[in-house]
Amino acid sequence: MRRPVRAAGKPVGQVREVPREPRAGGARGPAEDFPPATTARAPNAHRTHPGSIALARIVSLPRRRDGGRHINIGCSGSGKSYLARHLLDELGPRCKWIFTLDDKDARETKYAGAQYATVADFEAHPPAKDERGRRERRIVFRGDKYAGVECPAEDVAQLARKFVQAGVPVCLHYDELKRAADGKSGMHWTAPTVKWYLTEARSLGGWFIGSSQSGKMFPEEALNEAGTTSVFRQKRKAARYLVDVLDLDDELATLIPTLSEGEFVLLVDEEDWDGRIYKL
Ligand SMILES: Nc1ncnc2c1ncn2[C@@H]1O[C@H](COP(=O)(O)OP(=O)(O)OP(=O)(O)O)[C@@H](O)[C@H]1O
Ligand SMILES: [Mg+2]
Fold first, then answer.
1. Rounded to an integer, what distance in angstroms lies between the CA atom of residue 270 and that of residue 278?
2. C-beta separation of 59 from 90 below 8 A
3. Which residues line ligand 1 (CB under 6 A)?
């Protein structure tokens, strides 16, 4: 089970001193995607720290040659995919392949890399080497909604497993972790190899990244196995669920619903919450 995360004695009431970065990556979705805060945060209640510090922590946490497991949770438009993009950039030098399943929006590609509809397409036509002998190592599986073709989450997990078992470090990334779980209750994996990947791949150098709008949309074991979890804005009820299930400090139940776009708290396994809000 996950450790208790406590923040007793953490400093509060400090001045927000890190200037906001201009928003990159274009317009966000409709306004209702990112609902107004349900609880007003006292101005300057917490300083916002550069997200690069959190990224460095996430990437450097596993021992050398081990992989890591990171979960992003937050409401729509809170910044999960934005963080995932930066995290994948950081993992580039460590992973031979980065396999992303990003099939939410048929029109919008959120991740850089070679795009494939299915794993079978990738296996039939892997990226060719360019004139400098390099090949694209970031692979984005998207299905083809126009042709009614889906890319099953299980296929991507099996592909990743095949590589890590052969000693090749792979990052398996689900932009919507619920694709791998029972859509209604989230109580079991519909992609059973995800369970294997979560529990076995780390020591073989496999990285796992999964994002979800709610902690209830996938089996709880993913939260328990995660070395790091970034929590973005959540509505009060969803924040309360996380705080209860992970035994977090009660302050987070009131703080999480007040986070702004891109702001997150970082939970590190076996460590107290550092009392900080981060933003990339
Ligand atoms: N730290 C940030 N700095 C600048 N812009 C950001 C930051 N975080 C998020 N954004 C912008 O906010 C918008 C929503 O972010 P993002 O797509 O990552 O949300 P999401 O949590 O993945 O939402 P969904 O659950 O709907 O996929 C995007 O336009 C993104 O570029
Ligand atoms: Mg997203």
1. 19
2. yes
3. 21, 23-26, 28, 33, 74, 76-82, 213, 261-262, 279-280
Domains of the chain plus CATH, in order, are 39-279 (3.40.50.300)
Q: Which residue's C-alpha comes closest to atom 24 of ligand 1? A: 76
**Closest ligand 1 atom, residue 79 Cα:** 18
Reported residue count of the chain is 280
For the chain, how are helix, strand and coil distributed in percent, rounded to 5? 30, 20, 50
Distance CA 87, CA 141 (A): 18
> Which residue is closest in CA terms to ligand 1's atom 31?
25
Q: Tens of pLDDT along the chain (280 residues)?
A: 444 444 443 333 333 333 334 444 444 444 446 666 666 665 546 789 999 999 999 999 998 889 999 999 999 999 999 999 999 999 999 999 999 999 988 888 899 999 999 999 999 999 999 999 999 999 999 999 999 999 999 999 999 999 999 999 999 999 999 999 986 766 899 999 999 999 999 999 999 999 999 999 999 999 999 999 999 999 999 999 999 999 999 999 999 999 999 999 999 999 999 999 999 9
DSSP label of 149: B
Report CA(34)–ligand 2 centroid distance (Å).
12
Q: How far apart are CA 102 and CA 162, in angstroms?
A: 20
**Whole-model pTM above 0.85?**
yes
Cα 183 from chain centroid (whole Å): 18
Q: What ligand has the least distance to the C-alpha of 262?
A: 1
